[in-house]
Amino acid sequence: WQSVWNLFFEGTVDLSQNALPVKQAVFALHFPPLQSSTTTRYASVVIGSTIQSLWRAHWSFVFDSRPFTVSTILAQTRLLINAATEEDFVLRGIPHCPLPFLSL
Fold first, then answer.
1. What are 60-100's pLDDT values in tens digits?
2. Domain limits of the chain?
3. Would 66 disulfide with which of 37, 38, 60, 81, CB 3.0-4.6 Å?
4. Letter string b/e over residues 44-74, b meaning 16 or more CB atoms within 10 A of that residue's CB
């Protein structure tokens, strides 16, 4: 959680000393502001993607003996957030790639 928190949310929090921000985000749905560099508009997407990545890494470790590493979880979280952002663009009618430039 520490790495995801520092990567996507504003402010640095030492979660080993104070896990309250994570508890508030997961259980009370009270989210801190996102960093401006984060691609998604919704903090809930970050939290949900992180939980999904943690469980995927856990079950990959249990069934496939794959290492449970922070880098794996961060990479999977980024992929899920990017996919959710692209879906949001489609739902809002925003093209996910630039339109071709045509000149006559």
1. 999 999 988 999 999 999 999 988 888 887 887 877 666 66
2. 2-92
3. 60
4. ebbbbbbeebbebbeeeeeeeeeeeeeebbb
